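All the exercises in this workshop are built on plain-text protein records. The record below serves as our worked example for the rest of this section.
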Amino acid sequence: LLSFYIIYFLTGLPANLVALWAFVGRVRQPQPAPVHILLLSLTLADLLLLLLLPFKMIEAAYDFRWPLGDALCVLTAYGFYSSIYCSTWLLAGIGIERYRSVAFPVQYQQSRRPVYGVIASLVSFLLSFGHCSIVIIVHYLPTNNTGGDAKDLPACYENFTPEQLDVLLPVRLELCLVLFFIPMAVTIFCYWRFVRIMLSRPQVGRQKRWRAMGLAAVTLFNFLVCFGPYNVSHVVGFFQKKSELWRACAVLLSAFNACVDPLIFYFSSSAVRKAFDKRLRSLQSWGASLSG
């Protein structure tokens, strides 16, 4: 798992930094669209996750034991899981914006105010960080556990006591419903309608159609492959009354969304496409100069 975290960090961080640079420039222009604010917020959520990956690498290197202290364990887990769940409603918000732009173009243009994007982003962050405060609550919950061997390093946000599971498992189930299944249903409906409308209009060019289908496919991949297994573990854990052992692999897939999101940025924004193309040309020129 350590090698996967390293790959995610080395690929996801530069891609999201390029996207951040493009979106900051776009948002600083007069009257930015709400979708660009949502995309910027999604980039920030990804960067938070990526900046916490070195701590997950250390954890994986120590065979999923935590050598960095109690406080850093809580902060890392809280930020890591909150950043994952920030993405789900932000992706749903982007899907809603795309659907409205083609289904109700006149109303969309009239109501395209930046403040709506700011409000939607704040709500997404509040929902995710509020729900994931369960990480802090469970960690400091009084239990009857006397602890293990003092010589062993502790696990971080694992090996829960029965008292902790009584609180944690119902919250995980509610979190799965509110921050995964509902935004996924909203997103699937919006992109299904968005793609159908785009394909039904003969005046829409071939490139725009491909970008619409690519955007829908990558977003669906994010929900089903990246977020799906982790949230299924919440449901399974609730009914089996335990925290599943395969959650570590599911968490690994969830972190992969920070590498997938740049594709969403590429399909969504001409500013990002230009920024990526510019960086790619720079790399090609640099490679050509090295080869002599």
Notes: The two ends are 38 Å apart (CA to CA). The chain has a mean pLDDT of 88. The longest helix spans residues 162-200.
